[in-house]
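note to self: dont lose this again. the chain is below, predicted strucutre after it. 230 aa total, dont forget to put it in the shared folder this time
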Amino acid sequence: MPDAPITIDHFSDVLCIWAYGAQIRVDELRRQFPDQVRFTYRFLPLFGDTARRIGEGWAERGGFPGFGEHAREVADDWDHVTVHPGVWSETAPASSTSPHLFLKAVQLLETNHELAAGPVPEFEGRRRFEQAIWETRRRFYADAEDIGRRDVQAAAASACSATWATASWRPMCASCCTTRARARPAGADCAAGMGGGDRHAPGDPPLRMDKHVVQSRAEARDRPHGRRQA
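---
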């Protein structure tokens, strides 16, 4: 009787330069042990508030441009990825919350069998959800695109043959943003940063959100010491 596959819990933030560079290791492990290893992907809000983490935390080291230079220095020895010179200096997403929520929506569709979950040869054997993670990271670091924007997320979904993800965004937004602040009227900006100023159409459920709420319920489940695990 074959041994059960080993499950690896992979925690990362989509804006982390180290996670971007480490993707090659994940891919190699999956290729060498396709039946022995399973990955469970979880997202941590390390960059849930970049104004605080980088703008304030790196204030004496150059702020956002200084952090961008740091990211390029980290990647200097890597020949498998590229880092755009405008990363963090010209393009600085406000938070990783929005792209994480987008990716959890893709994962949920895969879990619910609304999306084929098998490996895709054209994506180097990654599942569509795994490719969405890579494509989102790549668009920020290689192309300096603001992955907090809904149109960029839609383009990433399309590149993964996952155009359905944007159609599922609005109900996911309504359910995950509903939290502890005042009710937001129809037509109001989503305070979670759903695509950089995306607006909820009349008739959508009102959202309850304030500027201090930067973590989705999906992220809360993914904390290693949280009460729940996804």
